[in-house]
């Protein structure tokens, strides 16, 4: 990892996790193309690094991210331009990462910021977090999952209300609706997210990846297809050294020593 001129800061910890911090605080971490490319690149480096088991993505100050970069998007003037460039298509790189990603949201997660948080696997929010899809106020609609992942997270009526009114959900409302897994006091969201990532990092990496893949598959498949997919991956764990180790350790009443293989 290089450390100069960083739009995304990387803190690689000996506990087997990396903390990635979005770093455009003056623009409330508006997600420019270059920032999202840097984030994808760093997450791909985490995926490729055998010493790392999970990642945390967080923001700075009062924003996780206040959305895609409105000024940058405004420089595209026509449908033909944005279609040709396939604007924002590269954002899907985040959801191709195989290692678990925990989002620590301490402030605004709006538009593309909310969509980025939803592309992560677990969202931990501080009491000051705010979630919303305000694109309608700009005369556009969500473009990276705000009409798709949000409905799966909080149901149609609430998702529709957020998308059609542009209003925000407080952290407490987001927790009640099921968008976030936990709300913690202001300033403690990163520690809480790191603790969750470290807990995951303590288990077998291939098993955690299979579990993540299965849970995410449920968003794309019918129940019957999902159950079949799950059964196949469950059986596949019998091909892992760590499955054998986990079972043998239980039977021998000792702690497992994961080989991550
Ligand atoms: C570019 C942004 C930005 C954004 C904030 N800024 N959000 N720049 N893109 N999404 C910049 C502001 O222009 C300003 O820069 C600086 O950050 C501080 O913002 P303020 O507005 O002065 O802060 P504040 O008054 O505290 O208001 C915070 C806020 C507001 C409520 C979050 O900034 C806001 O409404 N932002 C836009 C939120 C939004 O619409 N997001 C969705 C984007 S569309 P200067 O230089 O003036 O100081 C989107 C498209 C999705 O995400 C399609 C697919 C991704």
Automatic annotation (TrEMBL):
<keyword id="KW-0443">Lipid metabolism</keyword>
<dbReference type="GO" id="GO:0006635">
    <property type="term" value="P:fatty acid beta-oxidation"/>
</dbReference>
<keyword id="KW-1015">Disulfide bond</keyword>
<dbReference type="GO" id="GO:0004300">
    <property type="term" value="F:enoyl-CoA hydratase activity"/>
</dbReference>
<keyword id="KW-0325">Glycoprotein</keyword>
<keyword id="KW-0276">Fatty acid metabolism</keyword>
<keyword id="KW-0732">Signal</keyword>
<keyword id="KW-0456">Lyase</keyword>
<comment type="similarity">
    <text>Belongs to the enoyl-CoA hydratase/isomerase family.</text>
</comment>
<protein>
    <recommendedName>
        <fullName>Probable enoyl-CoA hydratase, mitochondrial</fullName>
        <ecNumber>4.2.1.17</ecNumber>
    </recommendedName>
</protein>
<dbReference type="GO" id="GO:0005739">
    <property type="term" value="C:mitochondrion"/>
</dbReference>
